[in-house]
Amino acid sequence: MVPVVSGYIAATQEGVVTTLGRGGSDYTATILGAALKVDEVWIWTDVDGLMTADPKVIQEAKMLPELSYREAAEMAIFGAKAMHPRALEPIIRENTPARIRNVFNPTNQGTLISSHQKTKNTEAVKAVAVIKDVAMINVGGAGMVGAPGSYARVLEVLSRSGINVMMISAAVSEANISLVVRRSLLGRALSALEIAVLGKGLVSEVTSEDDVCVVAAMGAKMKGTLGVASRIFTAVARKGINIRMIAQGSSELNISFVVKEADSMEVVRAIHEEFKLGKN
User: What is the pTM of this model?
Assistant: First the structure.
């Protein structure tokens, strides 16, 4: 017996029929796969698998044969054309592998996502991605120094306005905080901040840049590998490109930074070449 189950359909807590939203079909597949304890969940799409970079930007981009769950989640968050990060949750709990495959190229084995990887990747960075259509906001003021809750106040104002902050970087001086938001929400964000915090003893300046993008270098082996950040930033510096903002989480799975959008292709190419991602 082969059960055929429609994806994407769900119900609210009140039992009202609804949809799961973006990635809902994949989520349906991973829920069923985890519940049935299958050997693998196959996600059929229109690409061979996850790539080292966007092949439209880097012609030498290669398909990644294997990724860890956390690497796949990072790449999905940064717009890789594959699974939604939430769709990974059921199979991570059950340790069920998933495979991204191309419906137009069924002989290709695609990218395997699992907790164990057989192939050895010598480079710490596995992939590099870009998020465009973003803007950077800089909030600063001497009143923020040593003032408990000053950053929380800024974030609260944006939260009340329905604005998600994608990236944060703060100086140890506490006098400045930089934020990245969707470009379409920049006007609303600036208006909310200027009304709520500007000129009230806490913040003395709110500025923005709307011609930027976020570049992210990702890979599980970045954790504990010395000199990764140095190699990334040196490669970018060789191109004469200035980095506007940097952020790295404690997981060390990715280093994200902001550059001018006009420089994005050159930055991606520089990192791709530095870590020889086109030769793996």
Answer: 0.85
